[in-house]
Amino acid sequence: MGPEATEHVRTPSSRPRRLRDVSPGRRGLVLAWFAFTVTFGLMRLLTWLIHIDVAGVGDVSAGGVHIHHYVWGILLVLVVGAVSLVERSARLRLWLGVAYGVGAALIIDEAALLLSLEDVYWDDQGGLSIAVALIVIGVAGSLLALTRRPADRAPS
């Protein structure tokens, strides 16, 4: 076999995986994990900008009451649950995965507040939310990577 015969052969590991390489039943899970990770990072950035009082960035309030972002997360997860009870299309499953990941990140980012029932976001206790989110990101990502089925692998 000469060099020209092996020149254009690609092994599955030699190219990056794409979402379409993942089985349709797992794509929503992958997107949920990705959306969780990105949303958690963005919320930490946004809350830090609010904390250091960057002009134009502020809390959401209604009637003088601060609405924590876990409220939006709970509402989003409730909507995802309700929609997933009646709709099963593969295309919608992708969007539900994204919405679920976003909602879960909004909730987990304030886990310390939910457990202590005090606004401890920037206190030492607030680090619990970061720890929980990092554990979720690590465990979920590891499970997704380690439990790939043969249908999830790129074609040879």
Q: Any chance you could write out the topology, listing elements then pairs?
A:
Elements: H1 3-6, H2 24-51, E1 61-62, E2 65-66, H3 69-86, H4 90-108, H5 111-116, H6 127-146
Antiparallel strand pairs: 1-2
Helix pairs in contact: 2-4, 2-6, 3-4
Radius of gyration: 20 Å
Order of helices and strands: HHEEHHHH
**Helix share of residues?**
55-70%
Q: What is the arithmetic mean of pLDDT? A: 87
How large is the count of helical segments? 6
Number of strands: 2
By secondary-structure content and strand pairing, the structural class works out as mainly alpha
Low-confidence stretches: none
User: Outline, from the CA principal axes?
Assistant: globular
Largest sheet: 2 strands, antiparallel
Q: How would you write the strand order of the largest sheet?
A: 1-2
Key terms:
156 residues; mainly alpha; 2 strands; 6 helices; 61% helix; two-stranded antiparallel ribbon; 3% strand
Please describe what this structure looks like.
- There is one protein chain.
- This protein is mostly helical.
- The protein has helices spanning 3-6, 24-51, 69-86, 90-108, 111-116, 127-146; strands at 61-62, 65-66.
- It is globular, with a radius of gyration of 20 Å.
Concise description?
With 156 residues, the chain is mainly alpha-helical. The protein has helices at 3-6, 24-51, 69-86, 90-108, 111-116, 127-146, and strands at 61-62, 65-66. Helix 2 packs parallel to helix 4, helix 2 runs antiparallel to helix 6 and helix 3 runs antiparallel to helix 4 (90-108).
